[in-house]
Amino acid sequence: MKNNIFNKNIIILGIETSFNDTCSSIILGNKILSNIIITSKIYDKYNGVVPNIASNIQLNNIYNVVSKAILNSNINIREIDGIAFTKGPGLILSLIIGENFAKSMSLILNKPIFGVNHIHAHILSHYIYKKNNNYPNFPYICLSVSGGHSNIYIVKGYFNIICIGKTLDISLGNLFDKLLIMLNLKLSNGYSKLRKFCELGKLKYKIPIPKVNKYNFSFSGIYTYMKNFINKKGIKYINKNKYNIIKSFHYTIYKILLLKINRVIKKYKIYNIAISGGVTNNKYLRKKLNNYYINKNYNFYYLKNNNIINDNAAMIALIGYLKYYNNKFDNLSLKSKSILDIKNL
Predict the structure, then answer these.
(1) Could you give phi then psi for residue 276, rounded to 5 degrees?
(2) pTM higher than the cut 0.90
(3) Does 179 share its domain with 72?
(4) Per the domain annotation, does 294 fall within a domain?
(5) Which residues contact 46 (CB under 8 A, 6 or more apart)?
(6) How would you list the strands of the sheet with 272-276, edge to edge?
(7) pLDDT tens digits, residue range 102-120?
């Protein structure tokens, strides 16, 4: 699919501060000129993100991050055509940091602003420039899974997206975080260790799959099962068998995701499938899903660049570009919201 819509020489500055990262990016069309991401490791100390601490760090970082994005893009600040920022969902204190900075720049530079739905940006991150022009064709099914959401969407157009399935309790990313804490692994580098455990393990344990109607998810039951299993077996047993336990855990998650996507395919007869969000950084899940759908001769799309998969400002700028192109301008009265439906684009 060729995307001639991105051929305009429109330069957008993106700002992303929805969680614990401080991000800024400059794009020209859908091409990334710069993409700066600063991640705070302080959540290792608290086994999670403390909102007021995260926002204070972002407040200290935002000027330098945006300045570096502009500098690395090799453009003059006056060449920027518009400023996009994350308006939600996310941590409200963090969102306000990006919102206020974007509005200040808008006033100083006399440029339009665009509030961006964070999940919308994840879903359309597949349209960031690729040399092979391998972009999803509409309509497509998008599984978007991260620390804050786990949803399934039907994507009919850039601004025509319907949520048909969601988590009824915790997100998949949150489940992985809880597993790391139970295994006494740090949140900042624990995922790389999980990947190694999974690669070395074998399928030795059967973890029950929650029975949830239609396209919705529920991961709290798996959390409870894993917590009880680890407490019952004890840390010595867990350490001895961790490779096989983690491999079995990953396989169970894969089967859940596959089950839900296949239900959507059967109902809607759509054979273009995309995945997005931070959890898709998981190479095991990515590879298993890709191999399954490629063998079915379906079109399967996933991202390989970690700086596009995880929270970033390039995807925010991309939505800003699309809003500029379609004359969907916002004004300074726009307010960020911690809870934001996909209908609010």
Answers:
(1) -150, 170
(2) yes
(3) no
(4) yes
(5) 53
(6) 160-166, 150-157, 140-145, 272-276, 299-301
(7) 999 999 999 999 999 999 9
